[in-house]
């Protein structure tokens, strides 16, 4: 009797215990990966929260400093204007008026330039201080991504 192709091919049998074991292993690996991803997300969220809190505090402090500088400049300008008005009240001639006015204008412009420099420096520092936590967190995230 000759063998046919049907007689020489063996079909694998289905073993339910192996399938159950493979499914269990697959599920356990999936759960482990899910736990790892969750831990990374949780850690990332906590870091982001710390960054936002730090940035908020820095922004609040920087804003207060900038406000104080601005108020100080406005106060100095007002005092200068009142002192100038008091001096103008005692003017006895046109030439004295022009001399006082010219000196006050020169002083006001110089004071305004200095105030603008101070406020610009404070604004620049505030912007750098506020951006620093985000920059640090972003660089850390990029480094972590390169490692992973």
State the gist of this model.
By secondary structure, this protein is mainly alpha-helical. It is about 90% helix and about 0% strand.
Question: If you had to describe this structure to a student in words, what would you say it looks like?
Answer:
It is a single chain. The chain has 3 helices and no strands. The protein is an all-alpha fold and 148 residues long. Helix 2 runs antiparallel to helix 3. It is rod-shaped and about 130 Å long.
- Strand segment count: 0
Number of domains: 1
Low-confidence stretches: none
Our measurement of the CA-to-CA distance between the termini, rounded to an integer number of angstroms, reads: 63 Å
Helix share bin: over 70%
Protein name: Phasin
Organism: Mesorhizobium australicum
């Amino acid at each position: 009797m000759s063998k046919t192709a049907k007689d020489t091919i063996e079909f694998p049998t289905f073993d339910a215990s192996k399938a159950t074991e493979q499914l269990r292993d697959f599920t356990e690996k999936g759960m482990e990966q899910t736990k790892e991803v969750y831990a990374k997300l949780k850690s990332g969220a906590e870091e982001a929260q710390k960054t936002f809190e730090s940035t908020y505090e820095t922004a609040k402090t920087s804003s207060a400093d900038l406000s104080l500088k601005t108020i100080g400049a406005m106060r100095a300008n007002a005092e200068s204007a009142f002192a100038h008005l008091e001096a103008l009240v005692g003017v006895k001639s046109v030439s004295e008026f022009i001399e006082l006015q010219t000196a006050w204008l020169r002083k006001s412009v110089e004071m305004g330039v200095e105030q603008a420099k101070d406020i610009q420096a404070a604004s620049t520092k505030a912007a750098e201080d506020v951006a620093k936590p985000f920059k640090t967190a972003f660089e850390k995230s990029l480094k972590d991504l390169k490692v992973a």
